[in-house]
Amino acid sequence: VAPSETPGTFRPQLWLGVVYHPEHWPEERWSEDVHLMTEAGLTVARLADCAWATLEPAAGQFNFGWLDRAIALLAEAGISTVLGSSNFAPPGWLVRQCPDLLAKDPTGRCAQLGASYHGCINSPVFQAAVARLVSAMAQHFGPNPDVIGWQIDSESKQDCYCPRCQAGFRRYLAERHVSIEVFNRRWVRGCRGEAYSDWEQVTIPFGQYNPVLTLDFARFVTHTCRQFQRLQIELLRPHLRPDVWIAGSPAGWNGDHDPYTLAEDTDYASSAFCTVSERHDHRSTGALRALARGVKRRNFWILDTEASMSGGAVAKCALHKDELQALVWQAVAHGADGVLCWQWRPAPAGVDQHHITLVDQSGQPRPFFEEVKLLGLEFNALSNWVAGSTTAKARVAILNSCDSRWVFEGQRHQTGFSYVEHLEHWYRPLAARNVAVDIIPPDGNLDQYKMVIAPALSVLDDKIVGSLTELVRHSGHLVLTIRTGTRDEHNALFPLRQPGPLRTIAGVEVEDYYSLDEPVPVKGNWFEGVSRQWAERLRILDPNKAVKIARYGTSNGWLDNEIAITVCAQGTGLTYMVGAYLDVAAQQAMVDHFLQNAGLQKIDAPPGVEVCIRVMPDGKQLYVVINHERSPATVTLPSPAQNPLTDQAVTGPFRLAPYGVAVLLRAQPPQTSTV
Ligand SMILES: [Zn+2]
Question: What is the pLDDT of residues 85-121, one digit of tens each?
Fold first, then answer.
């Protein structure tokens, strides 16, 4: 994968912006909005993210004048535009014309107009209407020099159970599994009397169902979303200048989307909201950004993020005062070239009334508008330094297996087990040491990585097994965790003990596994702690290659004094097998040791302080130092640096304000760019 050059943008620039809906407000108000945006230092606005009914008030009658005027008004103020393909909410006239295009739930009930995402993306009528709108928009706005990028909606109702989708699913299966006999062998093997003699008998699974069918349905959803996205890209691309980029729907841990597959046809990955549930968790957000970064292994855009408080109908926690600065700079530190807040002003009606905005319902700036203004000043001042730079090349990858995630979402096996939380449990100790990480798909190229962590990599195919074996043969360090190697690519259990076909390089097998109701002690060579939720009892297959790193203490009898963690050598490569789900402190101690064994550099910083590196086109490095805490922090960087704006040297400890950020130019050239 060619890393890191910035596709698209007219000139290298660090973009700060907002999602704006001028169509919600009288045109007389727009100049006031644009004036306030200029005051905040915004440089980009995303328009028409959901404006189909306004853009095409009746079939084939396009009303683009308002959008032309809004783009021009913004451009006069130096604000560029990103346009949405605007199709995830088919308008009332279209639904009335063809009610059949509404998506259906498993009971056959239709989705409702007004809810968004109510169209079935496999409906030919819906597709034709989308194609007509996108073609017209492409011809009209494609040549507009003020439009710098497009976002394609690819996630109109995905899990539709209408007869069309049922038929499409059957066709997908027939192509994938060749014959009904092969399909039966792979899928059901006669379990619970389930067997099929004709494709017509197969239906889309819902609820508790055969996990094999559920996994193939998740893949089908990604497949159809990609086709729907491609339909739009193919209509759009011929009308765009070469420097105009196309991004898709945000990459995240969402539903039946494989973000890696969806991003194959786009220029940029996009990222969105943090996964705020309670208090904002910057490590969790860091993992989300590492995922966006790993999607195309290059910089990305954040097309909508919380500016303060998250949530629509139900407001979730608000960011603290000044925390927006840390959140936005963290995105940049991880590779964002542009950050857009959601959204400008509350929708006067409809489902977006309660999303947080920069100006309130009265049109007046909210108190945190001052923070956005500060960000605008910072982005403007530092754009020449940061724009065009990329993140430092990561030497550590975490494998994000959508197949495995879907399998666990279908069957957790252990009540509290979450694939994403488990993945984050491996991301956090790396982030605490400021080690750059790419979160990539399991079949991705591993050449650049010294260490690869495969959390709960349950589903394996020959390609993945081959690639991980090659990694270890070429001196790589592989970390396997609980639940690994249980299933083949069709989600059938391997007729092997875990970690299935990875036993050869792991040098161990799992004799049995235990869902835990209370923590089990684990004593390692360099740490002591407990395993929670889950524990796997390991048996060494080849004592000449594999050795024990940790044992369980006294607990349920089955685990007493049994092996919890091992390492197996193959030449200069290593495979760790971690059968315990360790507590936070033990996990950190263990990962620290793994990093040391792999000779990977880390950057020490106080807890809550994150240090990332962006590399400029000439090889110079920028430290982006972020304090994620509500109290001040004192930081010492591993090498001298200077403030790029003042040339002031920073050689010793320096202070960061609560949620404060420093962008500093590393004074000495690095010996290797491997952090
Ligand atoms: Zn459908």
Answer: 998 889 999 999 999 999 999 999 998 887 678 899 9
DSSP 168-224: HHHHHHHHHHSSHHHHHHHHTTTGGG---SSGGG-----SS--HHHHHHHHHHHHHH
Which SS3 state, helix, strand or coil, does residue 264 take?
helix
Q: How far is the CA of 105 from the centre of ligand 1 (A)?
A: 9
Centre of ligand 1 from the C-alpha of residue 154, in Å: 14
CA dihedral 275, 276, 278, 280 (to 10 degrees): 110
DSSP SS3 for 70: helix
pLDDT tens per residue across span 33-51: 999 999 999 999 999 988 9
d(CA 459, ligand 1 centre) in Å: 28
Three-state SS for 311-370 is: CCCCCCCECCCCHHHHHHHHHHHCCEEEEEEECCCCCCCCCCCCCCCCECCCCCECCCHH
Backbone angles phi, psi at 100, to 5 degrees: -65, -15
Contact between residue 58 and residue 94 where contact means Cβ atoms under 8 Å apart: no
Q: Which helix (H) or strand (E) holds 262?
A: helix 259-262
CB 575 within 8 A of CB 398: no
The gap between the terminal CA atoms of the chain, to the nearest Å, is: 20
Which residues lie below 8 Å from residue 593, measured CB to CB, with a gap of 6+? 526, 527
Alpha carbon of 167 to ligand 1 centroid (Å): 9
Angle between helices 282-296 and 323-333 (to 10 degrees): 30
Question: 604-625: per-residue pLDDT in tens?
Answer: 999 999 999 999 999 999 999 9
* Tokens found for residue 9: 């943008």
Sheet holding 269-271, edge to edge: 245-247, 147-151, 80-84, 44-47, 15-19, 336-342, 300-306, 269-271
**Which tokens sit at 265?**
């046809």
The pair of three-digit structure tokens given for residue 503, joined into one six-digit string: 């036993």
- Ligand 1 centroid from CA 653, angstroms: 60
C-alpha distance from residue 65 to each of 44, 50, 239 (Å): 20, 16, 19
CA of 164 to the centre of ligand 1 (A): 5
Q: How far apart are CA 538 and CA 197, in angstroms?
A: 42
Taking the C-alpha atoms of residue 555 and residue 552, their distance in angstroms, rounded to an integer, is 8
* Coil vs helix vs strand at 122: coil
Report the interhelical angle of 282-296 vs 419-432 (nearest 10°): 100
**How many other C-beta atoms can be found within 10 angstroms of the C-beta atom of residue 379?**
24
For 33, other C-beta atoms within 10 Å of its C-beta total 24
Distance 269 CA to ligand 1 centre (A): 27
How far, in Å, is the centroid of ligand 1 from the Cα of 221?
11
CA 520/CA 518 separation, integer angstroms: 7
Distance 122 CA to ligand 1 centre (A): 6
Distance 511 CA to ligand 1 centre (A): 44
Contact 165, 140 (CB under 8 A): no
CA of 106 to the centre of ligand 1 (A): 11
CA-to-CA separations, 380 to 340, 374, 645, in angstroms, rounded: 15, 10, 11
Radius of gyration of the chain (CA): 26
Distance 88 CA to ligand 1 centre (A): 14
pLDDT digits (tens, 9 = 90+) for 268-313: 888 877 655 667 899 999 999 999 999 999 999 999 887 776 666 6
